[in-house]
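Researcher: Please predict.
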Amino acid sequence: MANELTIPALPCPSIDEIASFYEMLGFEVTYRQTRPNPYLSVRREDINLHFFGMDGYDPAQSYSTCIVVVPDIHGLFEQFAAAMRKRHGKLLISGIPRMTRPRLRNDRYTGFAVIDPGGNWIRITRAQPEPEATTRLAKAIPGQQRRPQQLVLALVVVLQPQPVVAEVARLRRRRRRRKGSITTLAVLGDTMPDTRVRQARAHHPLRTR
C-alpha cells in the first residue's frame, strides 16, 4: 500500500481555545462539532491535527504528544514566532501555551516544540536524508547502501574461517581488475566447493548468477 495518512487525535479541555490557538499559527479549521462529543480538526498545508474535548482535563498533567516531520525547521519556527508576537506582543516561552526554540547544533537547527492550550506537545523535527552510498557496490546498485560488500566477506569468513583468509586477500586484489559489480561471495562459491558457501551464495540478495 502507499499514500497512507496518519492523523493524531489529541485531548483538550476546550476545542474553542484549541481552534483559536492554531488559527493564530496559520492553521484552518476543517471540521468542528460540539455534540454529542466535542471534536475539532485543523490543517496547515500537509500538517493535520485532530482534537477531542474532555471535561475536567488538566493540560498541566498532559502526556500527549505527536511528531511532525518538516523539511525546514527554522522557517516554520519563524512563521510561528511571528504569529505569536503579532497577537501577544512576544514569543510565548513559558507556561501553557508556549513554544521552545530550535538550537543550532553542528551547523544545523534542531527541532522545536509547540505546547498548545491542551498541554499537547507538538514536536517539530526535520526529515532525515537517505544515507549516501559509500562503497563502489552501493554506488553501482541502488538501494544497497545498507548492504555493503564488506558484509558479504564477513559472511564467508564465518562459514569457512581457515581456508578463506588467503582467498579473500587474493580477491581483494582481483576485484579491482574485474569489470562490473560481482560480489565476493559469488566468486568464492565457484572457487570453493563447500556446501554451506554455495547455499549462502544461492540465497544471498546480491547473487549475480
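Model: The longest strand covers residues 47-53.
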